[in-house]
């Protein structure tokens, strides 16, 4: 007899999961050895969030965004953020034509918007993304224009070079569900990449293996993934711990809790499960929390990273598991041990 | 998928329907609403029994004035009120059985409803069936304190309670006041509810009604109520019940009840724990461990069996020196164990895969449950060399794949 909730018992859910599996495999044709960050980025998209990629130049941030857009069959637009970029260059502008103002949509009216080197634009331009990322719409000259759905912003920034950059404000950072790092490939992966890209770049021929409708259906399915009440308490405890940590001056807000839950649901979905495990919560927290924390001066002086503090918190918050001590007391020593 | 919450709420709301012949429609509706609310908001559950009993009691408060007006004594009403309390208790027992069965992801409790409809003594048999569902398994002993409905009580208490309800209802049906007195009480009640015939003497107003034999009482479709059995009905020359009611109240109904009881017993037997046998040697388990031989996981439902299997394994690994850190997930912990004892890696992986859906909200198949128990038996049977001492399970202990890709 099959109990309810069996893993991948729902044929529709299984089929949708298989589509997302194909997306990951498709992206892997372009990015060698980056399955984990691909999975996390896809989880962020499935959770309806936006993603901030922070890494050194040439690690594949742009390629990841392009490959995801191509695989998901979404429209793709890239905006190179520079200090002279204006908000209207992103959102669109009204032009006086034939006796009336007409709205000319900007590159933000797309499926996946790659905001390349977002921290090079002025805060004013960065803030132009706030409404779009938060509410899926753009207001220009008092008129609100809805963006297409799904809409995902994948922004990149270089963590090393800070000259001529404007650090993203907290409110803007909070709009990004996940902050990920692509990371350098190891030696073998780099050799494999050289061989694969020797003659032509596979991104040029990368076809779609899913469509916007598949993505929307998957996003709906993700929201149905079960999160047990004690896992929700566990999740909230993690976020709460960031507010009382001695080295954190500003902890994560409730939006982070929602973000972790949504990302954990998406990770469970990608794993073909219809329930979230504490491992999903931990993996999600590692992507959702660090960029939302404001470290105090002592932590910054000691060069402590937010990621390491999150790791410390994850290492202290108890995971809901069986009360094994009660079992050990109640049950006799296993006879199977001989 | 989980049993949909809306259907669950509806099912719980339907449970009070088994009191339909005994109570006015509005009272049943109130009880149904109370049970639905408690299903929707678990905070109300502790109050459900008290509120339900209060409602039933309040329903019969006018009987006090009726008895006094008829020259009777209040003590004459004790059996009637006791019967009501027992009815409320039986209903509560059924509700708890349903909740507990649902927690175990079992739908066996569904048989309670058809049983209630078939039986001429619905609450008695249904509460007995509920008690069978609520009995504790071996894993309840092992996992006590984890929200089991009966806490640390002995395993047979719920059966004893159900038996008490059965005996109480049967005995009280004979101990009810004489039919004439009760008739007057019910007439008083009936008079209070209608002004059409304010001066009906005795049980006169009840003669034109259809009568149903329920829970040791004769109840009419206009609110009259009598103790006693079929002979009493004949003596009073009451109107014969409808063919369906007469059939259910007669031998046919009893056979159907017997059939329902047999069905309940069959379902109970099917989900009964396997009898544990003592393991002769660890070597016997090394090849193909038998579930019964493990002698540890004898819970009635696969969900509980897997939880017990995990708990025993964790306790066993702790004895071998590998204690799970409180912030370590079961998957992380079992992966760490697999790294230390590679020979057990496969069994540990199987157990981890089975445990996660059980503990964190999904479900599991019988086959997966069996596999988990076999894995646990293998782990428990193997002699594990002492684990190296770990200071913690910090980042370095996690596989590289988990550390990569995150800032």
3D architecture notes:
The complex is a heterodimer of chains A (338) and B (407). Chain A is built from 14 helices and eleven strands. Chain A has helices at 11-28, 35-46, 61-72, 87-91, 123-135, 170-175, 187-196, 212-223, 229-244, 254-270, 278-288, 297-301, 306-314, 324-330; strands at 50-54, 76-80, 92-97, 100-105, 112-116, 137-140, 143-146, 152-157, 176-180, 248-250, 294-295. In chain A, helix 8 (212-223) packs across helix 10 (254-270), helix 9 (229-244) packs across helix 10 and helix 10 (254-270) crosses helix 11. The model of chain A is unreliable at 1-12 and 328-338 (pLDDT under 50). Chain B is mostly helical. Chain B folds into two domains: 5-270, no CATH class; 282-403, no CATH class. In chain B, a hairpin with a 2-residue loop joins strand 1 and strand 2 (217-220). In chain B, helix 1 runs antiparallel to helix 2, helix 6 packs antiparallel against helix 13 (251-270) and helix 16 (302-319) packs parallel to helix 19. Chain B is elongated and about 85 Å long. Classes of the chains: A alpha/beta (338), B mainly alpha (407).
Structural key phrases:
heterodimer; A: 338 residues; alpha/beta; Rossmann fold; Helicase, Ruva Protein, domain 3; 2 domains; five-stranded parallel β-sheet; 14 helices; 15% strand; globular; disordered N terminus; disordered C terminus; B: 407 residues; mainly alpha; three-stranded antiparallel β-sheet; 20 helices; elongated
């Amino acid at each position: 007899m099959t109990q309810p909730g069996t893993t991948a018992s729902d044929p529709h859910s299984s089929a949708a999961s298989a589509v997302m599996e194909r997306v990951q495999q498709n992206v892997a044709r372009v990015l060698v050895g980056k399955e984990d960050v691909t999975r996390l980025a896809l989880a962020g998209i499935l959770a309806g969030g936006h993603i901030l990629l922070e890494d050194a130049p040439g690690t594949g941030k742009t390629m990841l965004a392009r490959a995801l857009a191509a695989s998901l069959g979404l429209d793709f637009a890239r905006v190179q953020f520079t200090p002279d970029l204006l908000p209207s260059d992103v959102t669109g502008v009204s032009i006086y034509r034939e006796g009336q103002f007409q709205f000319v949509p900007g590159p933000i009216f797309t499926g996946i918007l790659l905001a390349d080197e977002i921290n090079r634009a002025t805060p004013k331009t960065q803030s132009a993304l706030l409404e779009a990322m938060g509410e899926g719409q753009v207001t220009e000259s008092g008129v609100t224009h809805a963006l297409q759905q799904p809409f995902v912003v994948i922004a990149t920034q270089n963590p090393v070079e800070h000259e001529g950059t404007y650090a993203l404000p907290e409110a803007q950072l909070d709009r990004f569900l996940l902050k990920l790092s692509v990371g350098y490939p190891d030696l073998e992966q780099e050799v494999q990449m050289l061989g694969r890209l020797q003659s032509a770049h596979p991104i040029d021929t990368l076809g779609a293996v899913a469509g916007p409708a598949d993505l929307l259906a998957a996003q709906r399915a993700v929201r149905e993934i079960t999160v047990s009440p004690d896992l929700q308490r566990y999740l909230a405890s993690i976020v709460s711990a960031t507010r009382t940590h001695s080295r954190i001056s500003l902890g994560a807000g409730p939006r982070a809790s929602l973000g972790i839950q949504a990302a954990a649901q998406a990770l469970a979905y990608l794993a073909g499960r219809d329930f979230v495990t504490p491992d999903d919560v931990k993996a999600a927290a590692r992507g959702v929390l660090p960029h939302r924390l404001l470290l105090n001066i002592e932590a910054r002086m000691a060069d402590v990273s937010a990621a390491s503090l999150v790791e410390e918190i994850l290492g202290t918050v108890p995971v809901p598991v069986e009360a094994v001590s009660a079992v050990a007391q109640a049950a006799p020593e296993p006879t199977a041990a001989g | 998928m989980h049993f949909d919450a809306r259907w669950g709420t509806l099912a719980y709301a339907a449970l009070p329907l088994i009191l339909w012949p005994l109570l006015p429609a509005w009272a049943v509706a109130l009880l149904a609403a109370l049970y639905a609310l408690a299903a929707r908001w678990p905070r109300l559950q502790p109050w459900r029994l008290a509120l339900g009993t209060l409602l039933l009691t309040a329903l019969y408060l006018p009987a006090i004035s009726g008895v006094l007006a008829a020259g009777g004594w209040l003590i004459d009403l004790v059996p009637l009120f006791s019967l009501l309390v027992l009815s409320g208790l039986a209903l509560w027992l059924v509700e708890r059985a349903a909740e507990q069965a649902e927690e175990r992801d079992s739908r066996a409790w569904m048989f309670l409803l058809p049983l209630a409809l078939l039986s001429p003594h619905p609450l008695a048999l249904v509460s007995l069936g509920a008690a069978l569902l609520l009995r504790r398994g071996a894993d309840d002993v092992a996992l006590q304190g984890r929200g089991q409905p009966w806490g640390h009580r002995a395993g047979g208490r719920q059966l004893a309670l159900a038996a008490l309800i059965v005996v109480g209802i049967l005995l009280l049906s004979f101990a009810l006041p004489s039919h004439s007195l009760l008739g007057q009480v019910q007439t008083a009640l009936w008079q209070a509810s209608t002004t059409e015939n304010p001066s009906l003497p005795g049980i006169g107003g009840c003669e034109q009604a259809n009568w149903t034999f329920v829970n040791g009482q004769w109840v009419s479709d206009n609110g009259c109520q009598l103790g006693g059995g079929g002979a009493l009905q004949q003596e009073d020359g009451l109107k014969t019940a409808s063919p369906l009611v007469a059939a259910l109240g007669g031998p046919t109904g009893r056979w159907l009840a017997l059939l329902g009881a047999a069905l309940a017993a069959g379902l109970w037997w099917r989900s009964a724990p396997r009898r544990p046998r003592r393991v002769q040697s660890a070597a016997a388990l090394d090849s193909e461990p038998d579930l019964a031989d493990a002698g540890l996981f004898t819970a009635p439902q696969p969900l509980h069996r897997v939880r017990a299997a995990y708990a025993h394994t964790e306790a066993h690994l702790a004895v071998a020196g590998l204690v799970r850190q409180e912030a370590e997930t079961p998957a992380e912990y079992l992966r760490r164990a697999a790294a230390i004892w590679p020979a057990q890696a496969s069994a540990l992986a199987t157990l981890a895969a089975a445990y996660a859906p059980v503990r964190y909200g999904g479900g599991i198949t019988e086959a997966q449950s069996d596999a988990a128990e076999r894995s646990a038996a293998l782990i428990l049977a193997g002699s594990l060399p002492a684990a190296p001492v770990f200071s913690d399970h910090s980042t370095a202990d996690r596989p590289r794949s988990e550390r990569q890709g995150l800032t």
